[in-house]
Amino acid sequence: MAQVTASDALTYSLKREQAQFSEEAQRLAKQAAYIAANPPADGRTVSGDITRLIQEAAFLLKRAATIEAGLEAVGLVGAEAATEQ
Description:
Blueprint lengths: L5 H32 L9 H38 L1
């Protein structure tokens, strides 16, 4: 039976995070396009839409930072494994 390494586990987790990031980024782009297509007008405010957009962007930024840190960790684990051999 093949042994799962820390690098394998991190890589698997990162792929899931990246897929989630892509979905969230697409949803964010759709929200931004909706706001652009429906500017403030008489009887229509967009402040709530923009607030939600900013919140979603903050979550996306957090996920991006997590992915970037994970990629760095995979690189470090890989470098450490290479020096041990």
